[in-house]
# Entry
Amino acid sequence: MTAHIFKHPRLQPAALAVLTLAFAGAPQARQAPAAPEFQIVESVPEASVYGEAGVPRAQPVWLQMIAGAKQSIDIAAFYISDKPGSPLAPVIDALAAKAKSGVKLRILVDQSFLKENADSVARLRQIDGITVRELPMEALTGGVLHAKYMVVDRHDVFVGSQNWDWRALSQIHEIGARVDNARFAQTFDAAFELDWQAAETPNLPKLTALAMAPLPFAPASAADPVILRGDNQELLSAFPAFSPPELTPYALTAEQPALVQMIQASRHDLRVQVMTLSAIRQYGPKGWWSDIDTALRQAAARGVKVQIIVADWALREPMQSYLKSLAVLPNIAVKFTQLPPSPQGFIPYARVEHAKYAVADERSIYIGTGNWEWSYFNNTVDASVFVQGEGPARTLTHIFDQDWNGPYAKPLEPGQHYEAPRNH
# Structure
């Protein structure tokens, strides 16, 4: 009944008041408001104009989540890269301390990328109470484990563009989300469990059978979302989504169709910020990826104002030419961002917009871990959260608009050629 009322397009104030009381319970006089169950989390490059006031930063959020762990911490990470004195060092120390206190830690990393960042993982392997597994996605599907999420005590989830990399906390612009809800977290853990088993027994037919097995709970999904309390006690509807379909439990929502549906539902405005975006397949089988591309073009054709921000890393060919094919269309504008160098000097794989999010009509949002290319949705492990609610949409819209109108964003002109920057 609650979800049915929440979805009504013309919810009246009186009905909303009743729903709020039903959800939160009749509050006592002077009772402090409950903590929000959904928060947008931002990472801000030092010496930049970024940073939305009132939006928490990733490192303190991670530390708070880890400090609150009583039983378990599950982490899916593309890779882990720390250095002494970095913002990630206290996070690694906190994980080690929790393991020594008896909290069970499981860390899943991508096998093919491990050789590039082995030292931090090797340190974690040596700590009693921490189990590390490598997921051989290249052998299974031809992709990678690209997700970045953490589940604490099966109720608290962080998911977003932030890799477990010191640069992601201080040298890269990132967007993530924290969700404190048991059913939402159990849904993430169901996806994690399948990948955890895949790392131990990388047999695709057996994994497919496991994915088809019924779950012992009702997962949060597009068809059955959870209701969360946001800032100012606003009620939000939310569900997670996962990639790739081959390694996602059957009862969970797949990312690509959910994202297409969100774009198709847009009526007035669509804001997209992602590091890279292309319908030309560069990883996996060569060809054209029409799903997101068609949804974007159809949105523009029906009059939706589409604004897209990509990183300057997206200026390599043939991606640059593809982006120009969007920018030339009525109702679509594309910009790329160039962040100033760090005061420390050149830092490899840093000083970039790495966020992956979208806002539709200032009421629906998507925050994910994958770039908008075929491989990230079809042969690579990624995860995301979809939320319906004015508060989160307003926050992300403000972050987007500041970037769009800020000093680092430049229009992508179809008639000009741009040089992709050095990134390492």
Remarks:
- The first strand starts at residue 38 and ends at 43.
- Confidence is low (pLDDT under 50) at residues 1-26.
